[in-house]
Amino acid sequence: xxxxxxxxxGPQTLALADMGFGTVVGGDTSxxxxxxxxxxxxxxxxxxxxxxxxxxxxxxxxxxxxxxVVVCMRDTLLHLPGMDAVDSFLSQVSASxxxxxxxxxxxxxxxxxLEGTDRFLPVRSDEDRIxxxxxxxxxxxxxxxNDLVYIRTSDGWHLHKSSYPKLRIAPDAxxxxxxxxxxxxxxxxxxxxxxxxxxxxxxx
Length: 204
Prior knowledge:
Elements: E1 2-5, H1 11-18, E2 24-28, H2 31-40, E3 47-51, H3 54-61, E4 67-72, H4 83-96, E5 97-107, E6 120-125, E7 129-137, E8 142-153, E9 156-167, H5 171-180, E10 184-190, E11 196-201
Parallel strand pairs: 1-2, 1-4, 2-3, 4-5
Antiparallel strand pairs: 5-11, 6-7, 7-8, 8-9, 10-11
């Protein structure tokens, strides 16, 4: 079994199914994105979906030692409400993984505070959509991410706005918490796009 937490429309879920896992569960809080995953995975019988919060999925779908791989990608971990929740999440993963099972995390290091116009970051753009975000550093523990999305319509450009908090977790501090949860870190490095990737394994 493989579990993709915060799966969205399922790019990792589909990849895990294509790698040959017998059961791949994609969990997310958005039913709309899960419905999109179901549509994309129509030919992949291994794929299942589970609608729920990040801290609810593993206890609801798997018992102790039943999962071979847990992936949690693209800053999903940073949406948890606090460091106690991070520790609870890691404990759940440690309990659910089979011997030698693997946890894969990707996330941004938001601990360095950006100043002035450096707080405004481009996300992506094409001829019909421009996405950027602005960061407000509320405390040593959190940053507010303000998303600004310009969408071209038949009557011009329209702005859509939203904001939400993210945790500021130093990568090395996360490694210490992973170790405390009983997992062994086997890879820990930033990628070329600025995202950190951390991989840990359960004891054999």
